[in-house]
Amino acid sequence: MLRSLPRLSTASTSSQPAYLVLGAGSAGSVITHRLREAGESVVLVDAGGWGNQGVEKTGIKTNPLHFWKFSMPSALTYNLDPSSKYNYHYHTTKQPTMNNRSIDQPRGKVIGGSSNLNAMVYIRGNAGDFDTWSEIIPEDGGIDWSYKSCLPYFKRAQRDLTPERPFPDLEPGGTDVEDVKKYKGYGGPLSVTNGSTFSTKTYPGKPKVLNRSPLFDVIVKAGVEAGYKYTPDFNGKSQEGFGPMDQTVSSRGERCSTELAYITPHLDSSGSPTPGLTILPSHRVSRINFSGKKAVSATLIDSTGTEKTITPTKEIISCLGSIGTPQVLMCSGVGPASELSKHSIPLVHDSPSMGSNLQDHLEFYVQFHSKKPVTLFPVGNWFPYPWYRVMVGLEWIFNEGAGLAGSNQFETGGFIRSRPGIKFPDIQYHFVPGAVVGQSSFLPHHAYQAHCGTLRPTSRGSITLNSSDTSVSPNIDPKYLSTEEDVKDLREAFRLTDEILHMPAFDDYRGDKLGHKDVDVDDDDQVDKWIRNNSHSAYHPCGTCAMGTVTDSTGKVKGVEGIRVVDASLMPNMTSGNLNSPVIMMAEKIADDILGKKQMEPEDVDVWFNEEWESKQR
Question: Which residues are FAD-binding (predicted)?
Fold first, then answer.
């Protein structure tokens, strides 16, 4: 069935809402949805245009033909391209520990934010992450961030569509189907499924263009052969092990961004926001205005350069992300006094930790040629098989998301511990039956790769200003690999990855090494050099307005009034996995606090940790 063309949306107008939400990314979309659901009036602002509904709207210009760049799960790399207008295209400062390279940091410049650009991987993190948060964030009568208090909000957000999934020739490692269901939500806005639902989907009388790669199952078998457990759901009782990896994709095989999940329910049949909601796309936040220590309004600049000021009656909520939120707050006078004085910004409040504590995940690809033609090579590039790309796209459009295009191609993966003494996984694998350069260009070979990254780096960087003008990108300095522990952890991750990819399960597929054939796995210097030259960001910046230092447990900025932060900048420490799902949970949880609602009842559920974690790596 041919999917319908996207709707066009226009903003209603309101200059004095109850709430002003700055940033329509993952957190901003959730906050807006919950405030409107409660009957509160909201103005939602974003520097970008429309995305997942296929609309790029600036003034009267629209381009509905871009819908596939957002909606098609396998098209996830298109908006990472330097030509994309839906991306801020940030870069870090040159990193001396990484051969003086400047590392890409794409962020979504679009309604739905980075949930419209990301790889759609649905990973909540480990229960241990949130229990650690609860220990270091003073509750102060605010919010408890322990895992048992976060789980109800993960479930509230989720609409689980994943099938029950016994794995061929493997036992579920002590986690049965009933256990898995205890951790899932079934009635939320955010659709969650597995790519195999669509890559294996068929219609009577309609042959598949290409079959799902058997390599997705091979990596899991290899992990089990290496001594790790099979885990049927990384978001359930146990994160540790190898198994299927879920994605935020709808039942129709479309990317389920927060724009689709949380904003479109508040658009009428013509695509306009319903009464009480104003959406202002293509409006950049110039500054937040203070009266004394109270945030009272925000000044915006539209695509024509025209200024307008919005004055909410209740609160301003910054959801501009780990780069945008500290930048705007510093440009508005809230930040380290020494940093503000460099740019002649009048000081409203000296917040020494604003913009510090920047964290990010680093990862690398370990790649091999495949001896069998079972990879994404035929559809990875236009040549030499252009018809395959076209046919796979048409299969997705006309058959309700069926085929390879309905999957993000991260269908399986794994979480392991790097060494004894680590209680829960600090290494993550995304497996792809293809080989890419960077995040977008496929190599012209039948090949496969394991994306490998460490999960809890100890390096800490910062966001600082280049200008008092928010249109000028700030300095993004993650200080990657600035601690010996981070270097050691990535080195060990490389070796463990090499071991897994040499398990018997890969013997029928494993060809020559790609990109690391001259690296002696046992030579520290060679491995470290390769890592410094080949690692890149997983695009997970966080921590720059951390709860407990810059903000309190409810996201309110310390030292001022009327302004709250809700985005990944609140994380005191990184979560162990992709960040989109925990950010959505955080927004769901803080939304209740904004509305004065009692927090949902905590849920005590079993969490599995290896009983011998102190003495054994697996």
Answer: 110, 118-121, 285
DSSP line for 271-326: SPBPTTEEEETTEEEEEEEEETTEEEEEEEEETTS-EEEE--SSEEEE--HHHHHH
Burial class (CB in 10 A: 0-12, 13-18, 19+), 256: buried
Instruction: Determine if residue 542 is left, alpha or beta; phi over 0 gives left, psi from -120 to 50 gives alpha, anything else beta.
Output: beta
Confidence of residue 569 (pLDDT cuts 50, 70, 90): very high
User: Alpha carbon 417 to chain centroid distance?
Assistant: 22
Find the catalytic residue in 266, 361, 516, 540.
Answer: 540
Residue list for the binding site for FAD: 110, 118-121, 285
> What does the CA dihedral 128, 129, 135, 137 come to, rounded to 10 degrees?
-160
Q: How far is CA 365 from CA 187, 386, 439, 475, in A?
A: 36, 26, 10, 27
**Binding-site residue ranges:** 110, 118-121, 285
According to DSSP, residue 474 is labeled P
Q: Show the tokens assigned to 551.
A: 């903000």
pLDDT per position as a tens digit, 385-425: 899 999 999 999 888 889 999 999 999 999 999 999 999 99
Q: How far apart are CA 573 and CA 538, in angstroms?
A: 16
Q: Per-residue pLDDT averaged across 588-595, rounded?
A: 98
557 DSSP 8-state letter:
B
The span from the CA of 354 to the CA of 557, in Å, is 10
Looking at residue 96, the DSSP 8-state letter turns out to be G
Check pLDDT > 60 for residue 14: no
Q: Is 540 part of the annotated catalytic residue set? A: yes
Tell me whether residue 302 is exposed, middle or buried, using C-beta atoms within 10 angstroms of its C-beta: 0 to 12, 13 to 18, 19 or more.
middle
Residue 456 tokens, joined: 């809890």
Helix/strand/coil (H, E, C) string of 180-208?
HHCCCCCCCCEEEEECHHHHCCCECCECC
- Smallest CA-to-CA distance from 216 within 243, 189, 236 is with 243
**Band of pLDDT at residue 11, cut at 50, 70 and 90:** very low
d(CA 407, CA 104): 24
CA distance 44 to 190: 20
Rounded Cα gap, residues 157 and 29, in angstroms:
12
In angstroms, the CA 618 to CA 612 distance is 8
Residue 248 pLDDT class (50, 70, 90 cuts): very high
By DSSP bridging, strand 334-335 and strand 315-318 are unpaired
Query: How many CB atoms within 10 Å of residue 290?
Result: 20
**Nearest to 317, CA basis, from 356, 352, 353, 288:** 288
Mean pLDDT of the chain: 92
How high is the pLDDT of residue 1?
35
Q: Which of 203-217, 261-275, 344-358, 396-410 has the highest mean pLDDT?
A: 344-358
Q: Is the pLDDT of residue 450 over 80?
A: yes
Q: Is the pTM of this model over 0.90?
A: yes
